[in-house]
Amino acid sequence: MLAEERLARIVQMVEAQGTATVSNLAQATGTSESTIRRDLDKLQEANRLVKVHGGATAMETAHLTRDLTLPERYGLHADEKLAIAQHAASLIQPDDFVYLDCGSSVERLVDLISPTMGVSFATNSAEHAIKLAARGVDVTVLGGRLTAATAALTGPDTLEAIARYHFTLGFFGCNGITPQVGYTVQDREEAAVKAAALAHTGRRCVLADASKLGRVSLITYAQLDKATLVTAGQVPDEWSQRDNVVVVG
Q1: What is the pTM of this model?
Q2: Rounded-to-integer distance, Cα 241 and Cα 238, Å
Q3: What whole-number distance in Å separates Cα of residue 246 and Cα of residue 249?
Q4: Of 32, 164, 181, 205, which has fewest CB within 10 angstroms of its CB?
Q5: CB 152 within 8 A of CB 124
Q6: pLDDT tens, 162-172?
C-alpha cells in the first residue's frame, strides 16, 4: 500500500469509527505500529484527525470534549458552513445591532459581512473583530480573558460588557445539539458568555452543520427552543420537521 493510500485509509477508518487504535490501524493497513504512529503525527499536523494515547480520534469526536483550534476547524464541512453563512447573512437588516459568537460557522458569516450593510456588530471573538475592523465595519469588542485555542474572550469582564447591551440579532455556535439537553459546548466560561449574550438578544440563531446534531458536549448553554437552528448537510427528518429548525443548502 502506497503512503498516500495508507494515510487516506487511516483517516477513513478513524472518521467511520470515531476513534481507532494504533494496533487496529496497523493491522488494517498491513504496516508496523511505528509507521502508524508517524502517520498519525503527519495527519494531526495536517488537521485531518486528533492523535490521542494509543491511537487517534476524529475531529468531530474530539470537538465534543475540547475546543478545536482555529486551524483544526478550517475545512471541516466547508460547503455546509458556506450555505449556513449565506442564509444567516440574508437575515441581517439595516440598523440591526448584531452579536457574533466565536466559532467557525459564525466566522464563515463574518467573511460575508461588508461595511455597505450599514450594520453595527459586537463580538467576543478577537478573530472576528480583526477581520471586520480591517474592512471598515463598525464592531465593538467585548473584552475579557483571551482563550488561545478559539480566540474567544471570556470571563467576568466579558459578562459585564454584555450586560450593558441589547442586541437585535445574534448568531451563536455550539459543539453539539440534542432535543434533550439543547445546545452544548465544552468550556464553562464560553458557555456562560453564550448564555448571557443569548439572554440579551432579540432574534437568536445557532449556526451548526448536521455533524453537530445528536451529539452532546459537556455544558448546556441554552435549550433547543431558545433559538432558531440554521443547519445544512445530512439532516435527519426528525430535525428538519421541527418548527425552529431551518435547513439550507
Answers
A1: 0.74
A2: 6
A3: 10
A4: 164
A5: yes
A6: 999 999 999 99
